[in-house]
Amino acid sequence: MLESSIDLQLLHHAASAYYTDGLRQAEVAERLGISRPTVSKLLAEARRIGMVRIEVLDLPSVDLADLAGQVRERLGVEKVLIAPGDQRERDYRGLGDLLGEELRRLALRRGEVLLISSGTTTHAVSRARGLPELPGVIVAPTVGGQQEPDPTFQTNEIVRTFSDRTGAQPQFIFAPALPSPSLFSSLQADPSFRSITELWGRARVLVTGIGSPYDERAALTSVVPREDPSLRGAAGDVCLYFYDEQGETIAFPGSDRLIRPSLEQLRAIPSSIALAADPDKAVSIRAGARTGLFTTLVTDTPTAEAILAA
């Protein structure tokens, strides 16, 4: 929590005007009706308490374009984008910037649909400053998750945060990721749920994370059985589709009732962007590429090097 003896709203107004709006300190002072020395004090205090974070990026130690080409050839996907350094140490900001560039290139139009999954990386990137404005674009979740205590698995909240950041139009799933058989049957006839499945069928872009190998995961959505033998050895997952090292999906108890798009719907999405930054996910990424569930990988240097070394 941010703590300061100075009013936090005043700190935020000053920091936003200077760092986000690009005003000079004199202009900030005029806007807020305070002196220029006071503006300087406010900006220093905002940095001290962590309201403003200034990052000096490392110079790339490798040719990122060449590295991306090697990873793309190894995985057989359409595109690979690589952020310098270890993005876990940067709260995935570099991945957010690259995702923003790719979404600008795709130039989504009003009424088109972007799907977003749950997970640590998508949760972090949904708050990224590098995301573009997406007015009128519909953003919808790929899985249910109302009951999840871990915010990284609260897909509706990730949708809300992403939409707030981009000005998009959020749509929500008001259902758990794994409903009971009776609720699952009822949902098929529910108009609000059917409106979400219709969006799944016409999505133009998917933004998803890639889950770590099942046996090594510290965090896991509550609807996936932690000790089920069918999942032992799973290389990773995309949108709760777990797969083995050959990219073959794995069924487990209840997986037929999971609230998620079908494999056919996911594979039909023209631009499926997977975000992953963790060298331990190298096997998950390589196997995930074999599933055909993503067309573009956004990663970082250590992970890209691990993919080639795996």
Automatic annotation (TrEMBL):
Keywords: DNA-binding, Transcription, Transcription regulation. PROSITE patterns: HTH_CROC1. CDD domains: HTH_XRE. This is Transcriptional regulator. GO terms for molecular function: carbohydrate binding; DNA binding. SUPFAM superfamilies: NagB/RpiA/CoA transferase-like. It comes from the Bacteria. The lineage of its organism: Bacteria, Bacillati, Actinomycetota, Actinomycetes, Micrococcales. Residues 22-67 form the HTH cro/C1-type domain. Coiled coil: none annotated. Belongs to the SorC transcriptional regulatory family.
